[in-house]
């Protein structure tokens, strides 16, 4: 079954399209774009805020995103830019009535996969998403970058200033989730559920330990301090505030009993702080 995230700037617009998509058998997540932008000024800030909220709404866990915001330049385009800046590679379709001159071209330049009329049939939306997925199998091979830290999904490798960092598959997956949601806070339960088939309780202590280990490995390579703890909630990745290569030096953690490699996930430290 297809799962979509529907983002609309008006509740009435959202409910109308949601009814059509639900009737076509689509499982929907939804959010109202205006909620993210009320207190923001400037299109870049607005787009980043809305993208962070979209990730919280499950943008990284669906088959595609439909943005139904008639004001392309004021809402849809900043949101689209923010989503692509996080590294999100899912199909994104914009719905609009009549785009102003240049808006449709700008939408494609920012990473839109299609721009359709607001009354497009649900079947047309689903056919477009299916076609996009067939044409773009390489979307999963994206490279995520934050500061001097680079995660290459194609080769499942992590590097700092071009120097490889040996990490376990679990550590790589944790960082992938955080970097994909760059700027947004991911709860500990959400990360654990995603990486342990919904069993968050079994992974509660493991996540904390591996975050500590990941921070230490990055610090040893003089990485920017990109992983932040949001106390009582979870973690987020954000661009470094200080000059590259200096922020992480303050956060080196005690060396665990044994460190893991890509080939082995053993050696969990006895005590860690996250």
From TrEMBL:
SUPFAM superfamilies registered for this protein in UniProt: C-terminal effector domain of the bipartite response regulators, CheY-like
Keywords: DNA-binding, Phosphoprotein, Transcription, Transcription regulation, Two-component regulatory system
Domain (OmpR/PhoB-type): residue spans on this chain: 141-239
The entry's DNA-binding region: 141-239
Low complexity composition-biased segments: 254-274
Region: Disordered, residue numbers: 246-274
Pfam families from the UniProt entry: Trans_reg_C
Gene3D superfamilies in alphabetical order: 3.40.50.2300, Winged helix-like DNA-binding domain superfamily/Winged helix DNA-binding domain
InterPro entries: CheY-like_superfamily, OmpR/PhoB-type_DNA-bd, Sig_transdc_resp-reg_C-effctor, Sig_transdc_resp-reg_receiver, WalR-like, WH-like_DNA-bd_sf
Modified residues (4-aspartylphosphate): 68
Domain Response regulatory: 3-133
Protein's name in the database: Response regulator transcription factor
Organism for this UniProt entry: Falsiroseomonas frigidaquae
């Amino acid at each position: 079954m297809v799962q979509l995230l529907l983002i609309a700037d008006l509740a009435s617009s959202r409910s109308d399209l949601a009814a059509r998509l639900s009737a076509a058998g689509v499982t929907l997540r939804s959010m109202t774009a205006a909620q993210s932008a009320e207190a923001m000024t400037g299109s870049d800030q607005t787009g980043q805020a809305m993208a962070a909220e979209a990730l919280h709404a499950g943008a990284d866990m669906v088959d595609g995103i439909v943005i139904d915001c008639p004001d392309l330049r004021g809402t849809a385009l900043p949101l689209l830019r923010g989503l692509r800046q996080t590294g999100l590679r899912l199909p994104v379709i914009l719905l609009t009535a009549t785009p102003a001159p240049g808006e449709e071209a700008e939408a494609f330049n920012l990473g839109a996969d299609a721009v359709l009329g607001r009354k497009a049939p649900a079947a047309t939306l689903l056919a477009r998403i299916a076609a996009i997925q067939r044409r773009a199998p390489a979307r999963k091979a994206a490279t995520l970058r934050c500061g001097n830290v680079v995660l290459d999904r194609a080769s499942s490798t992590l590097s700092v200033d071009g120097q490889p960092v040996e990490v376990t598959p679990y550590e790589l997956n944790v960082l992938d989730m955080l970097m994909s949601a760059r700027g947004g806070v991911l709860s500990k339960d959400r990360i654990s559920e995603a990486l342990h088939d919904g069993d968050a309780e079994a992974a509660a202590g493991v996540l904390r330990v591996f975050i500590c280990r990941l921070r230490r490995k990055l610090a040893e390579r003089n990485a920017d301090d990109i992983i932040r703890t949001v106390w009582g909630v979870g973690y987020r990745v954000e661009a470094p505030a200080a000059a590259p290569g200096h922020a992480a030096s303050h956060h080196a953690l005690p060396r665990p009993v044994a460190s893991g490699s890509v080939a082995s996930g053993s050696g969990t430290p006895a005590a860690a702080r996250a």
